[in-house]
Give the backbone structure.
Amino acid sequence: MRCRYTVTMRLKIVPEEQMTPKLDQAIRRGLVICFPEDAEVFSQTRAWHGSAPVWTVVLEHEGEVIAHVGVVERVIRVGARELRVAGVQSVFVLPEFRRRGLTTSLLEKAMQEAEARDLDLGLLFCLPELERVYVRSGWISLGRRPAVRADETGAEVPLPEKNICMFYPLRQLSFPQGPIHLQGNDW
Ligand SMILES: CC(C)(COP(=O)(O)OP(=O)(O)OC[C@H]1O[C@@H](n2cnc3c(N)ncnc32)[C@H](O)[C@@H]1OP(=O)(O)O)[C@@H](O)C(=O)NCCC(=O)NCCS
């Protein structure tokens, strides 16, 4: 694999309270390019299903956001346990910068911050074909674990079966048994 990022690229963590309208717009531009089927949502907001990031990792190059990870913080329930998780959302790398391992750099930075914030583990949902991208960065697949979210009305809605669930060990080194309840909307 080629080098991760070059000296002209800048990787930074942006807490949501420091997010500027300009950076928000630059991230949403990338989201619209990389998730064209969700362009309507991302042209308006970065918050998928209303789940807004608490902090964001961006990689900038020549004034453009070329890669991004948003991180939601949430107390979820797994069986009888409650866990404080770093929910990874909207991972993207612009098409012309893909296949250089930039995702690994972004995820490492995001999980360093999650560790500094004393969270129990990282959690994401993705298509099975992306599993190896995340495994490469230390994520562990839970396969198709039953999971529900609570929508805007509080109703419990199962997560789509097409996705697998993956976690990143932090304070909690293994994932507890039992069904997952996100105790809020998904990300
Ligand atoms: C997924 C994504 C972030 C990967 O970015 P990247 O910088 O290319 O990541 P990496 O370089 O670490 O890994 C690339 C590998 O993933 C594979 N890959 C990426 N997207 C894939 C897909 N949809 N299906 C199958 N494999 C895929 C590539 O073939 C490559 O494999 P290789 O290294 O064995 O050649 C990027 O493809 C992207 O932005 N996609 C659109 C948005 C998206 O789907 N995000 C994930 C949401 S969970």
